[in-house]
Amino acid sequence: MTDNSLRTDLFSPTKLGEIELSNRITMAPLTRSRTGEEGIPNELNVTYYVQRVSAGLIISEATNISSQGRGYAMTPGIWTEDQVAGWKKVTDAIHVAGGKIVVQLWHVGRFSHVDLQPNREAPVAPSVIKTTGNVYTHRGIEKSSMPRALRTDEIPDIIEQYRHAAECAKRAGFDGVEIHSANNYLLEQFLRDSTNHRTDQYGGSIENRARLVLEVVKAVTSVWGGGRVGIRLSPVTIEVGNTPLDSNVMATYGYLIQQLNKFKLAYLHFVEGTTGRNRDVPEDIDLDALRSLFDGAYIGNNNYDFEMAISRRAEGKVDAVAFGRPFISNPDLVERLRYGIELVDVNNDAYFGNGAKGYTDWLKANY
Ligand SMILES: Cc1cc2nc3c(=O)[nH]c(=O)nc-3n(C[C@H](O)[C@H](O)[C@H](O)COP(=O)(O)O)c2cc1C
Hints:
Blueprint: E1 14-16, E2 19-21, E3 25-27, H1 43-51, E4 57-64, H2 81-96, E5 101-106, E6 124-125, E7 134-137, E8 140-143, E9 148-149, H3 155-171, E10 176-181, H4 186-191, H5 206-224, E11 229-233, H6 249-260, E12 267-271, H7 287-291, E13 297-301, H8 306-314, E14 320-323, H9 325-329, H10 333-338
The structure holds flavin mononucleotide.
Residues 28-31, 61-62, 104, 180, 182-183, 232, 271, 275-276, 301-304, 323-326, 351 line the site of flavin mononucleotide (FMN).
Keywords: Oxidoreductase
GO molecular function: FMN binding; oxidoreductase activity, acting on the CH-CH group of donors, NAD or NADP as acceptor
InterPro entries: Aldolase_TIM (IPR013785), OxRdtase_FMN_N (IPR001155), Oye-like (IPR045247)
């Protein structure tokens, strides 16, 4: 039988900061919308994550840090005690099975709908610029609502939401947290000048636009230390809904990454290209050069196949690779890659909110 571990060290143990991994194949964060309205992880979620435990690291689905941070129905949260207890069942089961799991901390910013917000208030954003994107409410797909701009004196509360969620994550037994600063959600809305037109200390210059994410990193690392905190960025992702690139991607993200070095984070995680769509990068942008500004470990993601993962690892371009969609339909992805077993394709119908169907009913291969 083929054993691809002889061709690559992707199947060998490594460390991302203080997090020890049994291999370099990680599971990318995947929203699956199988959690109830209260955002409390359930037994089905436990089964789903445990099925994927052979990933060197599981990065959980994006998890709301507050009721204000929520933009999609049936997604989990990490701000109430019941949510902590629900997640504890997941992390305990993962640890018993020998795996590692971090939680992705999420605030959607303007990608929300008044139906999902406390008291039907407007979603919050750096500036009053509406996304043309869709969100999922209890009624199905809806256009996102017009946001309101956060006042300067409300920013400390946003940072506190992240800090509180980080504390909850610790009590929930996670191995660390990933700060979701990608895919055009709140932190990236502040970072990009296309979505941040503020005139206070959180808008204008690169230093000002990077301020919120750096203050969030400071708050989260005050709970966890740097070595168990990762961050996800998507410098060139043009997501659905009116989120153009920053006018100077290299300067803005370069500044941010250099500042992040101060926190000695566990890892930097890039979506290379436009999330889930393609690996295209504008000519004047060099993601490998940006990544090399970071002193710590690096996870690469987006449209990787096994051969690309092997070659980028062999070139020293990545420390680990995150696979997203392949983990949906191949719970035993690590073993399949290792033994050269054909992968099962997934189609979009399985992605969101259909109970066990398309979620926990993918079969393992024989090996
Ligand atoms: C169903 C689905 C849900 C996703 N949910 C998240 C998420 O919660 N957080 C996140 O940062 N990215 C999310 N993504 C993006 C993936 O993490 C990943 O970047 C993307 O699928 C590209 O990787 P792949 O080609 O290996 O699938 C999602 C993608 C899909 C298909």
